[in-house]
Input
Amino acid sequence: MQKLEVFGAKKLKGQIKISGSKNASLPILAATLLSRKKIHLKNLPKVKDIQTMLSLLKSLGSKIKVKKNETIIDNTKQRKKFASYNLVKTMRAGILVLGPLLAKFGSAKVSLPGGCAIGTRPIDIHLKALSKLGVKYKIDQGYVIANATKGLRGNNIRFSKISVGATENLIIASSFAKGTTILSNCATEPEIKDLVNFLNQMGCKIKWTSKRTIKIIGVSQVIKTSYSIMFDRIEAGTYLLAGAVTEGNLKIQNIIPNIIKTEIDILKKIGSKIIIKKNEVQIFGNKKIKGMKIKTAPYPGFPTDLQAQIMVLLCKAKKNSVIQEDIFENRFMHVAELNRMGAKILINGNKAIVKGDIKFVSAELMATDLRASVSLILAALTAKGKSVINRIYHLDRGYEDIEKKLRKVGAKIRRVN
Output
């Protein structure tokens, strides 16, 4: 099994170009199933979750060609409606094929999903909403077996809680439902807006009518299109924090700064100096880091996917900090590993009390999920000596060329078997 060796205590300096968004790519790839024509996608990141989703599409009958920075998906002969456990077990987003398969064929059998062990993340919100479009379903031996014998029919649907995945699944499914669908209490993440832009470019009729309400007029077919995926805001935030935690000087490129305004504002309050340009943010790390209270929240709040990374930075603050995790109930698994590196973090329910003014020490570590694994890299970058991070297959699910990008800005990091 592969592991990472990180030799720390060096300031990072240089430029990092951000890849396409994993979290935008996955629903867009699922949405291509609506089409019976060729779709050209640009800027897909080269990460494990994307490869898994492409394999899932192939298993459903999609023909896929990859040319440099373009992926061509041909669904002219796509007929299968069965998404197996073997392909969905490692990736939460596998459930997103349920909506388009029901919209296209009126029936589907999709495995219950897997992914990181950061919380239950139930799909009941997806299924209850789909039932309001006329879907009948049962769960049998780990599979969702769903039918809409009369086709999907538009309806007014209010989500019981804000859910990114359920919002995406229902947007895709409703695009082919007869009549009009109104979705309210929707998630508003930029990746969802990227999905809406893609679907509208394919010929769907989707419109935001207020901050969390979407109106969808169903269509019966879509046109071929070419689309470029947005940048990965979590990758951008991770590298901004890498610059801050190593007291470095990094230019984060190929981004839209306004999309990560919350993260930039918090980094400024903590003590980083930041210069914003059109498609670039430059961060200068600071020795004097201020303690803070941070709550994770749906967009435009502070993202749960950056909670582990900012915790590393707050360990170096002059005063104590508090991080409240309001999205997932099991997302502090990195704390035990950070404490093994010298951190002093106490967990009280959904709050982490982070004691400041600590110096990380090198250690052998175990990654527990995607974002936890990268937080261990950030801590290791500041610790003298060699740290070893095991189970890095989590990392490969969401970060493209992370060692290469970090080495380019001065980090000493290598992958070993």
The chain has two domains: 3-19+231-416, 22-228. Residues 116-120 have pLDDT under 50 and may be disordered. Residues 157 and 183 are 5 Å apart (CA to CA).
